[in-house]
Amino acid sequence: MSKPPTLTLPACARARRLATERGEFAVHDARPDGTPAGTALLVPGFTGSKEDFIGLLEPLAAAGFRVVAVDGRGQHETPGPDDESAYALSELAQDVHAQARALDAGPVHLLGHSFGGLVSRTAVLRDSAPFRSLTVMSSGPGAIVEAQQIRVRMLIDALGRMDMQSVWLAMRDLDPPEAEDAATPPEIGAFLHRRWMNTAPRQLVATGLQMIAEPDRVAELAAVPLPKHVVSGTADYVWPVSEMDTMAERLGARRTVVEGAEHSPNAQRPAATAAALAAFWHDADRETDR
């Protein structure tokens, strides 16, 4: 799971509820001084939340963009039902459309991290009109790698037999000794636990199964006339970086590899990631406006 570098919102941002026709969603809403150059909607991944993008808010607002990071249904501070069908990709994609409309900003730049990349591309394939561009970050062309499929199946099995606290403790026991980061501030560690406990178990089961079974839809996405951007770190344990390289070529997309980052460039190297995003969004706006 992504580990945010801080939990303190910058002065340009506030936590609020975004009311849509599909319910309310917890968001972090960051705004620049003056009229925004554009608006971006950020969709987190499996076990994630809006806090995964907290390091991007200030630099992107400084670059002129309004940025809204969201907790999807069943994630952290957005409640969700005890019904796996509510978390189908088609349902989550409709949520993204509702969020984009509720921002009342015209077409928005859409970014999805990890599983959020699959949600975002499903939203674009459903209807690209609400979006000015699509960025998929640390997200691949189809199913996750086999080693991660095994871990997700273990998690799904555990969620069927144990409560969330017991699963949390079991996951910690499975982590290798080197995964224990003594430098993690206590408040970040407490947040990770709190976020896990707030996440709807059925959401984890449904989205985990989708990550295992997701087909390659790159050819469909390539046919959508929208500026596209593929971002990753230099290494990734969920989808191989080489798969993301090939996906970008197939999409005709801009490709950014963030040095020093792995699966979460948004949290691990936020300044470099924000610079790449802002440059792409400015270029996409110019391309769209021509």
UniProtKB/TrEMBL annotation:
GO terms for molecular function: triacylglycerol lipase activity. The keyword Aminoacyl-tRNA synthetase does not apply. It comes from the Bacteria. SUPFAM superfamilies: alpha/beta-Hydrolases. GO terms for biological process: glycerolipid catabolic process. Keywords: Hydrolase. InterPro entries: AB_hydrolase, AB_hydrolase_1, AB_hydrolase_fold. The keyword Hydrolase applies. This is Alpha/beta hydrolase. It comes from Streptomyces rimosus subsp. rimosus (strain ATCC 10970 / DSM 40260 / JCM 4667 / NRRL 2234). The lineage of its organism: Bacteria, Bacillati, Actinomycetota, Actinomycetes, Kitasatosporales.
